[in-house]
Amino acid sequence: MFDARLRPLIDIPLNAMARRLSGTGITPNMITGLGFAIGFLAATALAFQLNQIALVLILLSRFMDGLDGAVARHSKPRSRHAGSKSQETDLGGYYDIVADFLFYSGIILAFAIGRPEHALMAAFLIFCFVGTGSSFLAYAIIAAKTGRNHEKQGRKSFYYLTGITEGSETIFVLILICLFPHWFDRIAAIFGVLCLMTTMGRVMQARRDFG
């Protein structure tokens, strides 16, 4: 819901750092891999109830998630495809989206491992994540097939369909979980319902656009 509004503000520091990194030999896929590794460490810390450490690692991982795309846009092309003007590639976009969904669900799984008394609500939240993720990806496939695209949230490898729960809101929820773990069930219930509303909205949007 807030991704499009926050994107211009986030892009300023990301683009500044990307310009510094361009030409250093650091590739976008390296940054994606590093961000995913940091996300794995965040999940591990959360499983051991090291909430403050997990919070710092989550924020760092999400910074890397934004930085990889910025570096791709500012670096000289290494693509095998002729005419490429940057290091943005379909494979890089694929890596990025797979890492994102594994990260989000992995953090919730790790929380449940460290606090099994919350496992039921963690399972519910992951179920809701599957709804938002599948509705988003399914729409992206059809949108690409029909030539739909936009850049409200910056140039991306996938068509991003807006909703109540997007990346910004999900990160905010992960922060809340680290700061207030005893409120997990309430947070998961509220955000899970919002995720289901987002899924329903996307299905209705798909029906209007593709029906």
Automatic annotation (TrEMBL):
GO biological process, one term: phospholipid biosynthetic process
Transmembrane segments: 21-47, 93-113, 119-142, 158-180, 186-204
GO molecular function: phosphotransferase activity, for other substituted phosphate groups
Domain of life assignment: Bacteria
InterPro entries according to UniProt: CDP-OH_P_trans (IPR000462), CDP-OH_PTrfase_TM_dom (IPR043130)
GO CC terms: membrane
Keyword terms, alphabetized: Membrane, Transferase, Transmembrane, Transmembrane helix
UniProt protein name: CDP-alcohol phosphatidyltransferase
